[in-house]
Each structure stands twice: as structure tokens, then as C-alpha cells.
Design a protein that fits this description.
This protein has 262 residues and is α+β, with helices and mostly antiparallel strands. 27% of the residues lie in helices and 27% in strands. The strands form 3 sheets. The protein has a 7-stranded mixed β-sheet with strand order 6-7-5-14-15-16-13. Strands 9-2-1-12-11-10 form a 6-stranded mixed β-sheet.
Length: 262
């Protein structure tokens, strides 16, 4: 019998299994698809990590997470993070920008001023914004190499005695003091269960009498060709705040000569 079974081996499930194994727990990590795969929300080469949130709670989490990524890099002996910084911009002095500035000033080192478009261009000559644009800078932000992060969690989890079974779809769960997870590859039992299977969560939660208003959303990712002969690799990440939605982008990272925008 296991102490915990974790269903779903994306970044959430893999990091949870790793954390439990670090505490000396006997853990089984189940994944319905072959590892690695491209069907989850944590696949791909890059993700933005930042302290620049308008919600102070998220800033407090990132203050801890940033040091934990460094610890994982050291343990896994692999590079998982590229430091770039992040520029948050808006065409007016939007409340979200002001709240983001407050979060940064609390959890980043030193003051975080609101700057104008002239100062943006002075710092980054390749970036040009309208005269009314305002911005603040997150010096802690950068790019996480997403696929490598998931693999590092899994490797370190297994190194600590954790067990991973992929291509193992959960059919249903029987709750109780001992939880039984039924799969087409057999039944597994544990004292506790962690469900981190994203878009497939409702299928499992219904067995437990839990109904959550979960909605699967597709995020459109675009790659823009950089100007020939221009090196964009030293640019920061950017976040554009407007009334309808926020837009994010990162300098050339995944593919040579292409900037990622979403």
C-alpha cells in the first residue's frame, strides 16, 4: 500500500509527488499517456515565471517558488531557468499595474518605479511604445524550460524511491479510509489521493461526488519572426495589460529567430 497516489504526471502532479517523496512518503505517480507527451497544459519548451502579479498572495508564493526552482536545478544538475526580467506595460495607469507594483515592491529587492515609454526605449532600444504607455519591471522573472522541469521532478522523485506508471488510465476511484484507484493495469491502494489531471479532473471527481465548474480553455500561442540581423535574445519578457485581456511574450528562446506571443 502507498501513502499517496498522485493522478496526473504534469508539472503539478510531478512536483507534488516529488515533494511527498522528499518527506519520506511512499508515492505512486500515475499518468494516462506515454511520458513525455503533448496533451497536457505543462508540455512545451518554455513558460513564464514571475513575481509580477496584482494579487499579493501570488507574489508571496513566488517568493518561495523562486528559491525552490534553484534548489531543484542544483539537485537535478541541469539548467531549468533563464533570467530575463519582465516588463509590465499598460496604456493608462491601470489599477492592475499599480497593484503589481505594490506586490513587486514587497517581494522584490529594492524600489520598483513606474516608468514611461521614453525610459522603456532608453533601457531597451528595440522596444517602442506609445507616449502614454506606463510600465514597471519585475527583476525576478524569467523563462522556465517547461519540459525539462517536469522531467527533473520525475527523475528526482524516482531517485527518492517514487514509482511512476505511464499509459495507465484511471477508470474510477473508490473512496474510504483506504482509497482504491482502479485502472486497466490493475488496482492500487493508498492512504491518500492527489488529483492533478487538469482537463480530465471531472471524470475522476464525479466518482467522489464532487462537481466543480471546470472549463477547459485553449490558449492561442503565436510565433513572430524577428527582424533579420537583429538580436532579440537580451530583451525582457513582456506583459501588456488592457481592458479585455492580458498579452504575454518572450524573446527568442524556443526557436531561433522567433518570438513567442500569447
Amino acid at each position: 500500500m502507498y501513502d499517496y497516489i498522485v493522478i496526473g504526471a504534469g508539472v503539478m502532479g510531478s512536483s507534488t509527488a516529488y515533494a511527498l517523496a522528499k518527506e519520506g512518503k511512499k508515492v505512486l505517480l500515475l499518468e494516462q499517456f506515454p511520458i513525455p507527451h503533448t496533451r497536457g497544459s505543462s508540455h512545451g519548451a518554455s513558460r513564464i515565471t514571475r513575481t509580477a502579479y496584482p494579487e499579493e498572495f501570488n507574489g508571496s508564493i513566488m517568493a518561495v517558488a523562486n528559491s525552490m526552482w534553484k534548489d531543484l536545478e542544483k539537485e537535478a544538475e541541469t539548467t531549468l531557468f533563464k533570467h530575463t526580467g519582465l516588463l509590465c506595460t499598460t496604456s493608462t495607469l491601470h489599477k492592475e499595474l499599480v497593484d503589481t507594483q505594490k506586490t513587486l515592491q514587497r517581494y522584490n529587492t529594492g524600489p520598483v518605479p513606474i516608468i514611461d515609454s521614453a525610459e522603456i526605449s532608453k533601457r531597451y532600444p528595440l522596444m517602442s511604445y506609445p507616449k502614454e504607455e506606463k510600465a514597471c519591471f519585475d527583476s525576478s522573472a524569467g523563462i522556465l524550460y517547461a519540459d525539462k522541469c517536469v522531467m527533473a521532478f520525475q527523475r528526482m522523485f524516482q531517485k527518492r524511491g517514487g514509482e511512476v506508471i505511464d499509459m495507465c488510465k484511471v477508470q474510477h476511484v473508490t473512496p474510504g479510509d483506504v482509497v482504491t484507484v482502479h485502472t486497466h493495469r490493475g488496482n492500487f491502494q493508498a492512504k491518500g489521493l492527489v488529483i492533478t489531471c487538469g482537463a480530465w479532473s471531472s471524470e475522476i471527481l464525479s466518482d467522489l461526488g464532487i462537481s466543480l465548474p471546470l472549463q477547459v480553455m485553449a490558449i492561442q500561442v503565436c510565433y513572430w519572426k524577428a527582424r533579420n540581423g537583429v538580436d532579440h535574445s537580451s530583451l525582457p519578457l513582456f506583459k501588456s495589460i488592457d481592458r479585455i485581456s492580458n498579452k504575454y511574450g518572450m524573446p527568442t528562446s524556443e526557436y531561433d529567430g522567433l518570438m513567442k506571443v500569447l
